[in-house]
Write a structure and sequence with these properties.
four-stranded antiparallel beta sheet, 30% helix, alpha+beta, 19% strand, 14 strands, 317 residues
Length: 317
């Protein structure tokens, strides 16, 4: 087997300021190989991260009845709270061992997306929750759009190609809580089952507990253990579809910890960056020329709803 130890070699964000093409090349090459990349020296303000994490921990510590007020099952749980063991990975029967909160974009009063993008509910019980989580949302959104500029260069597109296709996107900040496991978990369970992400790119900041694994094209599961304060980024299904698979959306999972770490909770904060809902996803000509797979055009919103039904967050009609 080939040496895979350098597959997640961290890419310094400072390189983007010094040599855009070099940064774009390293990011693109990492995506092509594993669908994932690790970025060090990211620009997301640490105090913003800390405040959002504290607010999230305060929220998850609330009684179940208080959290349930923010649970919008009918809306596909795209905003607000989703209780423990609700979501499953596509094709998996066992529910994931997690609870989470979704913060979405604040839209102008007159926006054509209002019918399909709800407001995020305001949380009464944690005074600074709304401000802290939305400040984090905006930092991650801005950084994600910057990374898309590098991806555009890698794909031989104008640097700002993605900008008007994501600026009102249905992007979501997910605050995740995997509770401590006092007893050994049921056989065959993982904290989050093997899955791919639906969106364009996902930005994942420092999970406090290890466990993230990525399935390489060889079939082997590889642990992603980024340095402290690094950010993990991966391609989602929408970027895979846009590029005909040239940039792959890779299967990943969160495995249960060993007994000595099971009693600690795990928090993580993925940011799922989405296209504007009416953006038509069709393969880039240069990706098809490279051998990418052709698929029928589909809007970002139709594609999202198709996938949400598959993972059980939206009931099938």
């Amino acid at each position: 087997m080939s040496d895979m130890s350098n597959l997640f070699e961290p890419i310094p964000y400072g390189l983007w300021k010094e040599d855009k093409q070099a940064f774009a090349r390293q990011l693109g090459n990492s995506f092509r190989e594993t669908g994932f990349a690790v970025i060090t020296g990211h620009p997301v303000d640490q105090s913003v991260i800390d405040k959002a994490n504290e607010a999230a921990k305060s929220f998850f510590a609330l009684p179940a009845a208080a959290k349930e007020k923010y649970h919008d099952a009918a809306g596909g749980r795209q905003r607000g709270y989703t209780p423990f063991a609700t979501e499953n990975a596509k094709g998996q029967k066992a529910a994931d061992l997690k609870e989470f909160w979704h913060t979405g974009r604040k839209l102008p009063e007159v926006s054509k997306y209002r019918e399909t993008m709800k407001d995020t509910p305001a949380v009464d019980e944690v005074p600074d929750f709304d401000a802290a989580t939305y400040a984090f949302y905006e930092e991650m959104d801005a950084f994600g759009r910057d990374l898309l500029r590098a991806i555009a260069l890698h794909l031989e597109l104008p640097e700002d190609w993605f900008e008007d296709k994501v600026e009102s996107g249905n992007s979501i900040l997910r605050l995740l809580h995997y509770p401590p496991q006092e007893n050994p978990p049921p056989k065959g369970t993982v904290r989050a089952g093997a899955h791919e992400d639906i969106n364009v790119i996902t930005l994942l900041l420092g999970a406090e507990e290890a466990g993230l694994e990525v399935q390489h094209s060889s079939g082997e599961w590889l642990g992603v253990n980024p340095p402290r304060d690094a950010l993990v980024i991966n391609c989602g299904d929408m970027l895979q579809r846009l590029t005909g698979g040239v940039l792959p959306s890779t299967t990943h999972r969160v495995v249960n910890p060993g007994p000595e770490r099971a009693k600690f909770p795990r928090y993580s904060t993925p940011f799922f960056l989405h296209f504007n809902q009416d953006f038509l996803i069709e393969q880039l000509p240069q990706s098809l020329a490279e051998g990418g797979k052709a698929q029928p055009p589909i809007t970002a919103q139709d594609y999202l709803m198709e996938r949400l039904r598959e993972i059980g967050l939206v009931k099938a009609e």
